[in-house]
Every structure is written in C-alpha cells, then in structure tokens.
C-alpha cells in the first residue's frame, strides 16, 4: 500500500511565482492558470495573497530569482552589509573569491559589534544562495587579464560577440543608451580654471552642481525626457512651477543613486508597456546601475567595464554636444546682461533646467547617429556633407560668441571655449560606498540621504513670479509684432508661435468655461 505521506512537496522559485502571477494578469481564468502550472487553487491563492511581498523582493533584488525560500539570515544586518559591499565590488568588475567575502564579512561584523559571528563555509554557501551569487574559479592568467583590463582585445571581443547577440532582435529605433553627467550649472567662464578637474565630492560646490541623466536611441529619432538631480528638494525658484521640461529629483549630494535610477527605469518600463514596445537599454556598471528592479519591457545590456570611453555612444560626443549648447546659452545670457546694463545675477536651478533641456532637445539626430556608429553598435553609413557644413557654421558662431564674452569679462587668455565646456567632465555622478557608509546604511537605511536645503549659507534667489494667462498671451502678441519687423524670419518660427498661441487660447477658453460652470453650481 502506497504511503501518501511520502509525496514530495514542490517548492517554487521567486521567478516561477512571478510567472504564475503574470499569467493571471494576462486575463486567464485562475483555474486554467492553476492547471497550466500544475498547482492547486489554494496554492495559487497563497501566491496572490503574498504578491506584494514577492514583488518587493524582486524590486529590491535582495534575493536571487531562483531562490525558493525567503527566510532572513540569522545576522540580517551583517548579511545586508556584505551584500551592499559585494554589489559595489561587482559593479567595478573586480574579481572576488569566497575567502575574500568571508574575510570582509568578519570585518563588517566586527564594525557592527558582533564578536561571536563566524564567517564559515556554511554561512558563505547560504549567503550565495540567498542572493543568487555564483562564484567561479579562474586560473591565474584569467585573473590577471580581468584585473588589468583587456583593452582593445576586450572591445573587439564585445563587438564580435555579445553586442551582435544583444541587438539581433531589435531595430535601431528600439536600442537605447542611458548615461549620467555632472554639470556646474553656475559656472562662469572666468572661473573655468578653478573648476577644471574638480570631482566635487561635497562641500560648498555641491550646491553649484547638478547631475543629469540622458537617454537616446541608435537611430537618433527618440531622445527621452532628461532626469535632473539637484541638491534642494524644493528650491525657491521652483515655487509656483508645475511643469518642467524634465523630471527633477534631489538628494544631499545631487548624485544619481540606485533608488533614483530604478525609479526612472520603472517609469520607462511602464511607458514601453503602454506603447506595447520592447527595448534594449545599454548602460555602464556604475554603482547606481548594479541592482535593477524586475522589468517587463526593457532588456538591459551592460557595457564592458573600463571601456565606456570607446563603447558608450553618449560618452562619444552626444553629452559633449549638449554641454556645448548649454554653455552657449550661458554665454548668450551673459551678453544680454552686459548689453542691458543689468546686474549679472547667478543662474538658478530653474534657468539651468530650462537651458539643459533646451540643449538636449537641440542635439541633432546626425550627431546622435554618428556617435552610435563611432561606438561600433550600428553600421557606418555615408555622412551628409550638408550636415557637416551646418555643424561648422555652428562652431564659428559659438567661437564669435565666446570671443565677445571673453573681451567683455576679461577671461584669461589661457582659457578657451572647450575648457569652459569640459570643466565639469570629471564630476563624480554616483556614490562610491565606503565601509563606514555601509554601516550607516544598516543603521538608518538607504533613504536617510535626504535632499539638502537651498538656504544653507547662501543668499536665496527670488522665486518665480506668477504670470497670468492673459499676460502670457499678450507676450506672444508682442513677440509676433517684433518678428513682423524683422527680415527673413523662417516660416517654422511663425508656425511655432502659432502653436503656442493656440495652446494658450485653448487653456484660457477652458478656464473661462470651468469658471462659468462653477458660478452656475454656486447659484443653485
């Protein structure tokens, strides 16, 4: 007689549970889903009941996707500290062995005040299982190559192998690259030499910097809305401002963090889901990118470490083109102030955001495509000579602008426009964790890095004045009147002006209709 008690209980990994819930979300009947995955209705109900817990684990990536049990470690804070350190090391593609992890665990345990903790082989195996970590043995030659970098061989190997597999199922419209850059948004030309090479890890200069995340596709047809990170969560200049040409976030150092990057990723993923698109996103392995959430519509591909200078399209001229245009806007503002005899006010965050976004949207499609071709990700095609001529004209115009400002503001002769553009290229854009910072994170949690206050030790810039819709319409009419006195204004300019006028009139009409309805309701 068979013993029913000997039937082995099946355990499901986190990945399998998420697939079950995705099947339910697709509209299938629960009974059919249970049959498809070979589970009982009660097991399916238990999965759905614990759904929030599973999704939280996936979002935090705190356990490996193949993990079947979610029991916490006995020394949970040591486990979290070691995992935070491991992520930082892994992001830099530094080779680690089991013995190295065990030694680090003992060190961190001592810092946390645990004298009886033993980083045994058993603890190491459980740690690996909890986080889905695979430790591979390598020979001495492989270790040396990994530590020293593969140089041109590594780049050629990636071009010949991994990238071909990654892009095989995607068109250039659906292949994207995202990267961050730091910006000294208040930097004036005469202070260029002082800023050159500054990493800006903190201090007063942290108040003068922003970090901007940009993302574009390989065909140059789509540039995503920038994410700009400042130090002040609620700067005075953004009071009464409800629409910005970018997404704005803040933290104490104005850096990209893991939470901010993952939030941005989830928003992009949701947008792609609504559009029924699937995209490939190429990113580097900076510490903010190394613990990604569960994504449905984005396949992430990592660029080889220490090779982004030659493989990352945004680093090959796209971000530089944005900075050229941003600094040009700054120079124009300086000239306007000089010619109007007004006091030269410092640039505030609102003005910087507007200029950075305007510069980003003005980067030409041809520039984007050329940088993707330079990275070797899409084939090189014939370059339009007309495009090159237009770029040359822009360079000449900018040089004239620089020359005018240099004379008027007494810029040192040893400083040129390229120095001004690249002055903030060395800014740190993400946090590099030290042991003490890992410990602080265990005590207070990662979200304790709050945004700073704009008013700490500096004079507040005036808040944005409230402009009525009638004043805005009047300004458009004045602008149209001014343009009518100019010679050779392109038709596209009048078209854009008409679009603005139409938008404002529609908004005014809706406001009047809403106010009439409110008046009627109040009289009843």
Distance between the termini: 82 Å
Number of helices: 21
Task: List the uncertain runs.
Answer: 59-71, 136-150, 444-449, 455-459
Class inferred from helices and paired strands: alpha/beta
Q: Beta-sheet strand percentage?
A: 5-15%
- According to DSSP, the number of beta strands is 6
For the CA atoms, what is the radius of gyration?
28 Å
Largest sheet: 6 strands, mixed
Q: Can you give the mean pLDDT?
A: 77
Subcellular location: Nucleus
Protein name: Tigger transposable element-derived protein 6
Domain HTH psq-type: 3-54
Domain HTH CENPB-type: 66-137
List keywords for this structure.
524 residues, alpha/beta, six-stranded mixed β-sheet, 21 helices, 51% helix, DDE_SF_endonuclease_dom
What does this structure look like?
The protein is an alpha/beta fold and 524 residues long. The chain has helices at 14-25, 30-37, 41-49, 51-60, 76-91, 98-112, 121-131, 140-148, 151-160, 162-167, 192-195, 258-274, 308-311, 318-340, 349-362, 365-374, 385-409, 417-422, 435-444, 469-484, 491-523; strands spanning 175-184, 209-217, 227-230, 247-250, 279-283, 298-302. It has a 6-stranded mixed beta sheet, with helices on both faces. The longest helix has 33 residues, at 491-523.
Layout of helices and strands, plus pairs?
Layout: H1 14-25, H2 30-37, H3 41-49, H4 51-60, H5 76-91, H6 98-112, H7 121-131, H8 140-148, H9 151-160, H10 162-167, E1 175-184, H11 192-195, E2 209-217, E3 227-230, E4 247-250, H12 258-274, E5 279-283, E6 298-302, H13 308-311, H14 318-340, H15 349-362, H16 365-374, H17 385-409, H18 417-422, H19 435-444, H20 469-484, H21 491-523
Helix pairs in contact: 1-4, 5-6, 5-19, 14-15, 14-17, 20-21
